[in-house]
Amino acid sequence: MTATTSTHDNGILAVHSVDEFVFSVPDLGKARHFYTAFGLDVRDEGGALALYTFGHPHRWARVLPGGDTKRLEWISLGIHASDETRFRQGLATKGIATIAPPAHAEPTGIWIEGPDAMAMQLRVADKSSPSQPAPREFPPASANAGRSPSRSKAQPTRPLYLSHILLFSVDVDAARAFYEDVLGLRLSDKSGSVIAFLHTPHGSDHHLIALAKSNGGGLHHSSWCVPSFDAVGQGTQQMAEAGYEKGWGVGRHVLGSNYFRYVRDPWGSYAEYSFDIDYVEAGNTWPAADHPGEDSLYVWGPSLPEDFIVNHETAVR
């Protein structure tokens, strides 16, 4: 029996995955170029771009044609089929009304308005968040021969799966309470009322969803698991060669422990290469804590870009 099955059998009511996040951009061509260079499997589906990882059947995100800037349109959260009725009952008990789905969204599942007026879909889906720690590949031990991959034969970085998304929020504490009390997520760590990291009790990376203080809602970054530190470096290089030199990293986070490189997209938000993030096993309790502000960002790495936490989605509204 898997850990995920055991938590479900124990009656824990919680979303188990970010099944999909959907955002719009002014130029699908630029989005295609960026995410293809990043190493994702970018497909045309129904007038939008669909983001997959190579070798994995799951669709992690969609990019719709939009207005003058990037805009997070909605997020779809995966739930177990046997929990749908329980979620409907819980929402009714808490006085949370269902809403009509946004344009271009499937009318299936349960649609509600989440924090910062974000449309959220709770839909029955297979668990796509990881059910075990991410793979960790390291060079072999020294054995009287070179261990570095050859630059001439180096393969481009291709992420394995979506690790998490970080959302902007006007009120991090209120948003965190909603994700915990309504959707069943649990706090991993936080730093005051500025940032919070949440995981699912069904098993996930250190954070499935993170929340950062801002003047409105929106998407700060999507984070994609890669299997090695070399993959972070190779990804940094391939994106620079594709014209995307701006970003932050390489560095290492304190909260989550992962090594990172954030690459700035054409609209001021980021896609992150993430290696070796902490994992919260299903059924286990993570020692959540409130950390000093200096620990909310990184142990080591380059200085933070001045506009790293600017919410470009609200800047033009």
Automatic annotation (TrEMBL):
It comes from the Bacteria. Residues 123-156 are annotated as: Disordered. The keyword Metal-binding applies. Residues 145-155 have a biased composition (Polar residues). Residues 161-276 form the VOC domain. Keywords: Metal-binding. PANTHER family: METHYLMALONYL-COA EPIMERASE, METHYLMALONYL-COA EPIMERASE, MITOCHONDRIAL. This is VOC family protein. It comes from Variovorax robiniae.
